[in-house]
Write a structure and sequence with these properties.
The protein has 409 residues and is α/β, with parallel strands linked by helices. Helix content is 40%, strand content 13%. The chain is built from 13 helices and 14 strands. The chain has helices at residues 20-26, 28-31, 42-62, 75-87, 112-120, 136-151, 176-186, 205-208, 259-297, 332-341, 361-365, 370-373, 387-408; strands at residues 8-9, 69-72, 103-107, 124-126, 158-162, 191-195, 214-218, 229-233, 301-303, 308-309, 312-313, 322-327, 344-345, 376-380. The chain has a seven-stranded mixed beta sheet with strand order 2-8-7-6-5-3-4, with helices on both faces. Strand 10 and strand 11 (312-313) form a beta hairpin. The protein is globular and about 65 Å long. The two termini are 40 Å apart.
Length: 409
């Protein structure tokens, strides 16, 4: 008999396949339960009931009140709403984005959905160490400096600090609770936002992100559909909407809600939360086998930001589903092409640049030399990952690397 077709999808940090249960839950709202939840008739009330039930369930999973759950079109909108919404003064929602903006401070390794709005508002970034962990002393220093400038009438004062829960490139996990303590001590009037898009599969955010005032999620990172996200908005935050034109989502995010997508996202979230402890253990084993297997046969290869003690890797500060390597003598673009031919689907870094290959600001902030960053490879696992995929990757990646190195020597 011919060998079964083998492939390895190792790009779950970019997007996961939808869970079959989420697809099944979505279909009725695309066919027979399609009414607008803002309407008054029976069909509209049915859609609104489904929306309210989804909001209640998310509130329970995230440890907040139902009214604190704001549904959005995904992680990027959730992050943008948090940054622009918290930075702008609520008494003038129609003003230009930079008008009346308080200062935003974020880590240097944030996703572009946070980093770019922060820089557009003239905000500041905080350093990380070589493992990708936020420098808490630098954060305190930046907050203190801005407090002195504000007291002297030379600055607007810090209104928002944003630190992601887990990095989408390297998997580095940030100490959100410790960050919150620094913010409360050095900028007590600032809100704290965490981009937890990569964090929902990793931790119970009702506990792990309880100190954050704003929390962003995106459904397609845990088996839900693309185009659905949410933002937790605590009552302490005065959030200015980015768009006007309706009262949906308590005015935070006007526009007709995607009921079908929200219902599907809720099912995916429920399944993820229920299986999380077992999945973290399973994915940790898969990732470790994948990384150690590659490092055992590839020279000039390092695991990005992971320190080794007596030959043993300390991955305690890493999301289990993300492995990141830097390979000497290899260019990422060429390697990804060869891997695709071998039915291994991976990435070099973030997948939010329309496929364009560009220098990683994350690796730069971590101090990774450019010649090493040029050979970066992200291998990310998720709920659908299997042992067979890891086996296939271990068989396919080393020959591709060796082939490229033969041409560069």
């Amino acid at each position: 008999m011919p060998a079964a077709h083998q492939s390895a999808y190792l790009d779950h940090a970019a997007t996961t396949p939808m869970r079959p249960e989420a697809v099944e839950a979505m279909l009725p709202f695309l066919t027979v339960r399609y009414a607008n939840p803002s309407g008054a008739h029976r069909m509209a009330r049915d859609a609104r009931r489904a929306l309210d039930e989804a909001r209640d369930e998310w509130a329970e999973m995230l440890g907040c009140a139902p009214g604190e759950v704001v549904f959005t079109s995904g992680g990027t909108e959730s992050d943008n709403l948090a940054v622009f919404g918290a930075a702008r003064r609520p008494d003038d929602p129609a003003a230009e984005l930079t008008a009346h903006a308080g200062l935003v401070v974020c880590s240097a390794i944030e996703h572009h959905a946070v980093l770019d709005p922060t820089l557009a508002l003239g905000g500041r970034t905080v350093a990380v160490d070589r493992t990708g962990r936020l420098d808490l002393d630098d954060l305190a220093a930046v907050l203190d400096q801005e407090a002195r400038r504000h007291d002297a009438g030379e600055g607007p004062g810090v209104r928002l600090v944003s630190v992601m829960f887990a990095n989408n490139e390297t998997g580095a996990v940030q100490p959100v609770g410790e960050v919150a303590e620094v913010v409360r001590r050095h900028a007590p009037h600032a809100a704290l936002h965490t981009d937890a898009v990569q964090g929902f599969c990793l931790a119970d955010l009702s506990v792990a992100a309880a100190a954050a005032d704003l929390v962003s999620l995106s459904a397609h990172k845990f088996g839900g559909p693309k185009g659905v996200g949410l933002l937790v908005v605590r009552p302490s935050v005065r959030l200015t909407p980015r768009q006007l034109g309706g009262g949906q989502e308590r005015g935070h995010r006007p526009g007709t809600q995607d009921v079908a997508g929200i219902v599907a996202a809720t099912v995916a979230g429920r399944l993820t939360a229920a299986s999380r402890p077992a999945e973290v253990e399973r994915l940790t084993k898969l990732r470790d086998r994948l990384v150690e297997g590659l490092l055992a046969v590839l020279d000039d290869a390092v695991e990005t930001g992971v320190e080794r003690v007596d030959g043993l890797a300390d991955r305690s500060g890493r999301a289990p589903g993300i492995a990141h390597l830097c390979l000497g003598g290899v260019e990422s673009e060429a390697l990804l092409y060869l891997l695709e031919q071998a039915e291994v689907f991976a990435s070099a870094a973030s997948s939010c640049s329309s496929g364009a290959m560009e220098a990683s600001h994350v690796l730069g902030a971590m101090g990774v030399p450019s010649e090493w960053a040029a050979g970066s490879l992200r291998l990310s696992l998720g709920w659908a990952s299997t042992d067979a995929e890891v086996d296939h990757a271990l068989a396919a990646i080393p020959p591709a690397v060796h082939q490229l190195r033969r041409f560069t020597l």
